[in-house]
Amino acid sequence: IDQAYILELELQGLLASLSGNEAQAEKLFQQAVQLEDGASYTYGPPEVVKPSYELYAEWLLEQNRYEDAMTMFDRALKRGPKRLRALNGQLQASRALSSIRLD
User: Which of 19, 65, 71, 77 stands the most exposed, by the fewest C-beta atoms within 10 Å?
Assistant: First the structure.
């Protein structure tokens, strides 16, 4: 796996989002997730600074796409069980969904 390329895609996604190009941001986050999916575990999980699943899920949360964020946080937790950031993000998305359903 080319960890530097995954990080580059994540950074490009953040830059696209900051520039208001949400469609491009999502495309880049999806590419990063796909590359990370294909990572082999020869000597343990790849050392990615921030898993692309988490970054994408957090971005989805900011876009008020709570169900999509929940799905991506679930994937993040399958790859990294008990990761605090993913658990907190999942909790935020769940609360947002509950709030919407109660309205």
Answer: 19
